[in-house]
Amino acid sequence: MKPRIFLVGPPSSGKGYCVSSLVKDHALEHIRETWLLKTANARGMKCVEGKEGALDDATTAAILTELVAASRGCIMDGIPKNGAQAEAMKGVAADKLVVIDVPQAELEEFHANRLVDPETMQTYDKVKNPPPEDVVARCTTQAMDAEDKVKERLDPYYAELEAIKTTFGDKVLLIKGTTTTGGEAEAALYKELCTQLGL
């Protein structure tokens, strides 16, 4: 039987690559929190009658319980987001909580060193992969890579991660992530994930 997994990880950790590869290579259903209400309404689930907008944790868990039970294998992408949501989802029949693991300091350093060539959209790293001399003058730091913006995205995730992991106990599977996009690093990350999941 194909796995049914929660998969969480910070931005720029290789999580997106793993999700898209698992969906493509192993035909796992991709469950996104953003479309749960629409899906539940389309399937006539009673737990969403009269609901609009953001879903509370109990309703999200009720929808996931039904979707996962009907699935032949799925990835719940980026869910749960916090300890309270994790607690509400303990009853969902998931095999694993996969955590793509990258230390926060490593991600902050990655964003601090990232440069983009606005003409080609090629990304560079000031230390590991500096831009060539003929393009360095036009390379810029994107607004989303500013220290305050990076911390705004990362702090909530890391503040809740231990509570999420504690809730899932022995179902937690830690996989070392990577800030290197494309090539061997992401391929190795994905291979390790598949090995650990028995795929």
Count of alpha and pi helical runs: 7
Low-confidence spans: none
The CATH homologous superfamily is termed: P-loop containing nucleotide triphosphate hydrolases
Assign the structural class, choosing from mainly alpha, mainly beta, alpha/beta, alpha+beta, or little secondary structure. Answer: alpha/beta
Largest sheet, in brief, is: 5 strands, parallel
Would you tell me which CATH topology applies? Rossmann fold
Strand content: 15-25%
Side-by-side strand order of the widest sheet: 2-3-1-4-7
Termini separation comes to: 10 Å
Q: What CATH architecture would you give?
A: 3-Layer(aba) Sandwich
Number of separate domains:
1
Question: What is the average of the pLDDT values?
Answer: 91
From the spread of the alpha carbons, the general shape counts as: globular
Strand count: 7
Succession of helices and strands = EHEHHEHEHEEHEH
The CATH C-level name is Alpha Beta
Radius of gyration: 19 Å
Proportion of helical residues: 40-55%
Report on this structure:
The protein has 199 residues and is an alpha/beta fold. It has helices at residues 15-26, 36-42, 57-70, 83-88, 104-113, 147-168, 183-197, and strands spanning 4-8, 29-32, 74-77, 96-101, 114-116, 123-125, 172-176. The chain starts with a strand and ends with a helix. Helix content is 43%, strand content 15%. The chain has a single domain, classed as 3-Layer(aba) Sandwich (Rossmann fold), CATH 3.40.50.300. Strand 5 (114-116) and strand 6 (123-125) form a beta hairpin.
